[in-house]
Design goal:
Layout (H helix, E strand, L loop, with lengths): L1 E9 L2 E6 L3 E7 L1 H5 L9 E8 L4 E7 L16 E7 L7 H13 L3 E7 L6 H11 L5 E4 L8 H8 L3 E5 L6 H8 L10 E2 L4 E2 L7 E6 L2 E5 L24 H4 L16 H8 L4 H22 L1
Parallel strand pairs: 3-5, 6-7, 6-9, 7-8, 9-13
Antiparallel strand pairs: 1-2, 1-4, 2-3, 4-5, 10-11, 12-13
Length: 296
């Protein structure tokens, strides 16, 4: 038996890196299917070697996970880096908010990175900064093409296992190539017709930055659903609300149509960003409609 870590999974094959021995191509035993347990990139596993020369083996045990994410489907991460373009394509902040909520619910701290700053005006960058100043996440602006902000990003990733996520065409693979030159990730161009990127990453893959720093590259996404979430829970994933909830007249205020709402008063006063509050309202109504359909 040998212990290693799954660094890639493609078409039923799992590539397990064992420190000092190399990477083995493994198949998962049927017992995992019977247990409805799917191996994930990032899993620490036990394998049996079938052929040392050809580096093949069987995956026989998945060791306990420190964390598990559903989307992206990876294991044993302690930090998320979500990358959007500052412009071209225009950042979909509603999509970003959904990702932040998903990470918050799973207890994963998130760094927000807006790349391609050379394509955005100073006014637009300032607007984006103001939207997320109170969201509880670190916000970073980079330009992979010019190498700006990359050193600071590297510093934030050191000592962590970070999952990298975001839509296609925002420069994820370019940034990963700068952080891990050996990764040699394929990069894609933006479609001018639809203003979004082509998917160049088709599977999750784990890369080692240094002794105790790892990053996952994951497929791009264009939509996210807040499954298994009740509308009453949504407000807890907007950290900028917390300071003002004590000023709400009613306990359990949902910050919608209730009178004497401290959060709405903070929005009017400009101490809670209006765009973030509007995003909250749209998502609240979406969850409310879903609940109505479920029980109708």
């Amino acid at each position: 038996m040998m212990r290693g870590r799954i660094i890639k999974g493609i078409a039923g094959f799992y590539y397990v890196h064992a420190e000092g021995f190399g990477t083995y191509e493994c198949k998962a035993k049927g017992a995992f299917r019977n247990q409805k347990l799917k191996p994930l990139v990032g899993d620490m596993v036990e394998i049996e070697i079938l052929n040392e020369e050809e580096k093949t083996g069987n995956l026989v045990e998945i060791l306990p996970r420190a964390s598990e994410l559903i989307r992206p489907a990876v294991a044993n991460v302690d930090q998320a880096l979500v990358i959007f373009a500052a412009a071209k394509p225009k950042p979909n902040l509603s999509l970003l908010d959904r990702f932040l909520i998903m990470m918050d619910r799973q207890g994963i701290e998130t760094i927000i990175c807006f790349n391609k700053t050379d394509e955005a005006s100073e006014k637009e960058k300032e607007r984006i900064q103001n939207v997320y100043v109170g969201c509880g996440c670190k916000v970073l602006f980079t330009c992979a093409k010019q190498g700006q902000g990359v050193d600071e990003l590297r510093r934030l990733l050191l000592g962590h296992t970070t999952t990298v996520a975001g839509p296609s065409g925002v420069g994820k693979s370019t940034l990963i190539n700068l952080l891990v030159p050996d990764a040699d990730m394929e990069t894609g161009r933006i479609s001018e017709k639809i203003d979004r990127g082509k998917h160049t990453t088709r599977h999750s893959e784990l890369f080692r930055m240094d002794t105790d720093s790892y990053i996952f590259d994951t497929p791009g996404f264009s939509s996210l659903e807040l499954t298994d979430m009740k509308k009453e829970e949504l407000r807890y994933s907007f950290p900028e609300f917390r300071e003002y909830e004590g000023g709400c007249r009613f306990q359990g205020c949902l910050h919608q149509k209730e009178p004497g709402c401290g959060v709405k008063e903070a929005v009017e006063a400009g101490t809670v960003n209006k765009e973030r509050y509007e995003s909250y309202t749209i998502l609240f109504q979406e969850l409310q409609e879903r609940e109505k359909r479920r029980y109708s």
